[in-house]
Specification:
With 304 residues, the protein is an alpha/beta fold. It contains 12 helices and 10 strands. It has a single domain, classed as Homocysteine-binding-like domain (TIM Barrel), CATH 3.20.20. Helix 7 packs across helix 8 and helix 8 packs parallel to helix 9. The longest helix is centred in the middle third of the chain and has 17 residues. The mean pLDDT is 95.
Length: 304
């Protein structure tokens, strides 16, 4: 299957698709446009859509073949805790529409769905209630024009399961990625989930892809990718690593020191590990993605 941004991908399409570059960080890029620490930036989908569009468009111009949406926190549970209850559908739909417009027929839009902030496995939120929360958001993302959905930055296996079930109701291809930043070898999520457990759950629930995002530098994702390949039984692997580990900067800022060259150098080992979707998370920029796109082109001269 060749890359066709005008055709919404099915789950089976992604299994056979050549590697693609996704986008980079959204939060740190929106902060450069005036976002304040702790601000709920999903609200910008309505209050400052031009700034959100600028981030999405910059990644398209950098060569991203898959871009996300500014909807990581646009679920009812998070919004109610932040005083924006009842706006999940509005913000999710608007976020998808912005990325759809920015993609302009050059990239797929995979909508971002983040955690609720409540631990399902610890009984803080009932699994059925969690599934409904995610289904509500997913329906609005689909209405806004999303081609697929990525349930990302997960640490709780049961919340991820509920999110997949809710999002899969849309009929879109839905993948799930976890954040591995805990344990002696930094290979478990905050809730102790292993790569193998994540793979098993993703297969059981019909995910279109599985992988890791955030929590680690891009180069540290290589051994995780190898483990995903060993247990994934052909499920495509999605990796979006940070631009190094976060460090405290001047004035309370956070600094990420890994430059575009680090991301370019990671492309070959990630491909060798079987990764199909490569991109960046916190601290990465359009320049990081541009470097990955160039490196990918050298490995796949014919292009997807």
């Amino acid at each position: 299957m060749g890359f066709d941004p005008g055709r919404r991908p099915r789950r089976e399409d992604l299994k056979a698709h050549p590697p693609l570059c996704t986008d980079g960080a959204w939060g740190t890029e929106l902060m450069k446009q005036g976002g304040r620490p702790g601000e709920l930036l999903d609200l910008w989908n309505v209050s400052a859509p031009e700034k959100v569009y600028a981030v999405a468009r910059a990644y398209v111009e950098a060569g991203s073949r898959v871009i996300l949406t500014n909807t990581f926190s646009s679920n009812r549970a998070v919004l109610e805790a932040r005083g924006a209850g009842g706006r999940a559908a509005e913000l999710s739909r608007a976020g998808a529409e912005i990325s759809r417009r920015a993609a302009a027929g050059r990239a797929w839009v995979f909508a971002s769905v983040g955690p609720t902030g409540k631990l399902v496995s610890a009984g803080e939120l009932d699994p059925a209630a969690a599934e409904e929360i995610f289904a509500e958001q997913a329906a609005a993302l689909a209405e806004g024009g999303a081609d697929g959905i990525v349930v990302e930055t997960q640490s709780d296996l049961e919340e991820a399961r509920a999110a997949l079930r809710g999002c899969l109701r849309t009929g879109l291809a839905v993948g799930v990625t976890f954040t591995f930043d805990s344990g002696r070898d930094r290979d478990r999520t905050m809730m102790g989930v292993t790569v193998e457990q994540a793979c098993r759950m993703a297969r059981e629930e019909g995910a279109a892809f599985v992988g890791a995002n955030c929590g680690m530098g891009i180069e540290a994702a290589v051994p995780l990718a190898r483990r995903f390949a060993a247990c994934g039984e052909g499920l495509p692997i999605w990796i979006k690593g940070n631009a190094g580990r976060p460090e405290a900067g001047p004035g309370g800022t956070t600094v990420y020191r890994a430059g575009p060259e680090v991301f370019a150098a990671a492309v070959a080992p990630l491909l060798e590990a079987g990764v199909r979707f490569l991109g960046g998370c916190c601290g990465s920029t359009p320049e990081h993605i541009r470097a990955m796109v160039r490196a990918l082109a050298l490995r796949l001269p014919e292009g997807p």
